[in-house]
């Protein structure tokens, strides 16, 4: 028996309708034509005339009894495509007119901005002659420069080359005025600093002249104390005392006191005492360097504390009757010369098997371990 035929519903088409492509194309064309018309007024006029010509041609073919042959053929073709006519008329007419209007409006705005900038700087010349503090003038110059840059940009974009050149000249002049103003500020600052330094120096001079007599007595007492410490062999303390004296005398440097006989005599006494104790200070410094070098050598030979403890433990175990019975109770170490002195308290079994506690002190370093010398 024959099998009845099976029918399947056709899947819905996912193809994009043709009119959608046309709409998308015309939308893109409107955006492009509008942008070009905005950039060029001539292109906008041409696009608008093209759109109107398409509409006129289609209309003439319908209303005229005997249109010209070319108009009739084109109009007949357009008449069969009303969607195409409406769309492209909108593209060219709307895009050209709207883009041209926007471009014209933008240029008018640029021209107005340029004219305002020119008028502002013409009026500015009278205000520039007015006297004002230099800081306020520098702020005014900065504002003028910003306005001049905006005006130069507007004039250039509007095609007003003469006015744009005037704005650039204004920017150059403002930059020159800014440099001159900054130089004036620098000179004023330097003069103010010089005046302040001179006032401080005068004040210091007056204080030095007024206080030096009493301070000289204190310095003389300090010198006597430094000499007494040197006589007692306290060379380092004498050095510190002389340093304090030199600091006290330095308080009067760069003043007229520095040239006085009293100040000069005190400085000479300091130099004489310094010369007397310097050999002893050099000897102390040499001894400290030698001690430091010796300590560095001893530290290098001594090694680290952990290694010394391990060596001491191993030496004790080797000397035990039963090394495996070793159990550490306590272990301390301290540095002495080139050795670590390691004291170990431990437990272990003796020859009779009894557990005993003992304390052993050994000296260990990188080279050896044994009884302390």
Tell me the distance between the termini. Answer: 124 Å
Instruction: Give the strand line-up of the largest sheet.
Output: 1-2-3-4
Gyration radius, to the nearest Å?
53 Å
SS content category:
alpha+beta
The total strand number stands at: 4
- Overall, the morphology is flat
Please trace the helix and strand order, writing H or E for each element.
HHHHHHHHHEEEE
Tell me the helix content.
Answer: over 70%
Question: What's the rounded overall pLDDT mean?
Answer: 80
Beta-strand content estimate: 5-15%
Profile the largest sheet.
4 strands, antiparallel
Number of helices: 9
> Which stretches are poorly predicted, pLDDT < 50 over at least 5 residues?
7-13
How would you describe this protein?
This protein is α+β, with helices and mostly antiparallel strands and 373 residues long. Among the domains are: 19-117, no CATH class; 210-296; 303-370. Helix content is 73%, strand content 9%. The protein contains 9 helices and 4 strands. It has helices at residues 18-39, 41-63, 69-79, 82-128, 134-157, 161-231, 235-250, 261-302, 305-319, and strands spanning 327-336, 339-349, 355-364, 369-370. It has a 4-stranded antiparallel sheet with strand order 1-2-3-4. β1 (327-336) and β2 (339-349) form a beta hairpin. α6 (161-231) packs across α8 (261-302). 19% of the residues are buried. Residues 7-13 have low confidence and may be disordered.
């Amino acid at each position: 028996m024959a099998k009845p035929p099976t029918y399947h519903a056709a899947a819905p088409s996912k193809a994009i309708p043709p009119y959608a492509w046309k709409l998308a194309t015309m939308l893109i064309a409107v955006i492009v034509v509008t942008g070009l018309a905005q950039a060029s007024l001539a292109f906008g006029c041409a696009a608008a005339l093209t759109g109107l010509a398409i509409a006129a041609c289609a209309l003439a073919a319908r209303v005229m009894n005997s249109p010209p042959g070319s108009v009739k053929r084109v109009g007949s073709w357009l008449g069969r495509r009303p969607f195409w006519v409406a769309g492209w008329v909108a593209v060219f007419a709307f895009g050209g007119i709207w883009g041209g209007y926007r471009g014209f409006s933008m240029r008018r705005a640029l021209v107005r901005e340029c004219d305002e900038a020119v008028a502002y700087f013409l009026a500015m010349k009278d205000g520039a002659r007015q006297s004002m503090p230099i800081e306020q003038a520098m702020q005014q110059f900065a504002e003028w420069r910003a306005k001049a840059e905006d005006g130069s940009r507007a004039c250039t974009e509007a095609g007003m080359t003469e006015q744009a050149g005037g704005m650039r000249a204004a920017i150059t002049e403002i930059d020159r005025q800014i440099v001159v103003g900054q130089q004036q500020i620098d000179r004023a600052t330097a003069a103010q600093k010089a005046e302040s330094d001179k006032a401080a120096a005068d004040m210091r001079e007056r204080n030095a002249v007024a206080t030096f007599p009493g301070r000289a007595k204190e310095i003389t007492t300090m010198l006597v104390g430094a000499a007494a410490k040197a006589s007692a062999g306290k060379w380092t303390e004498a050095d510190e005392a002389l340093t304090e004296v030199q600091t006290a005398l330095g308080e009067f440097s760069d003043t007229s006191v520095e040239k006085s006989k009293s100040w000069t005599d005190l400085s000479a006494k300091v130099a004489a005492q310094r010369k007397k104790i310097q050999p002893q200070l050099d000897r102390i410094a040499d001894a400290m360097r030698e001690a430091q070098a010796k300590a560095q050598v001893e530290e290098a030979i001594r090694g680290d504390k952990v290694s010394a403890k391990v060596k001491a433990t191993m030496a004790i175990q080797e000397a035990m009757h039963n090394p495996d019975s070793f159990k550490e109770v306590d272990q301390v170490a301290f540095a002495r010369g080139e050795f670590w002195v390691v004291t170990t308290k431990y437990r272990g079994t003796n020859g009779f098997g009894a557990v005993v506690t003992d304390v052993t002190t050994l000296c260990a370093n990188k080279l050896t371990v044994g009884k302390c010398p």
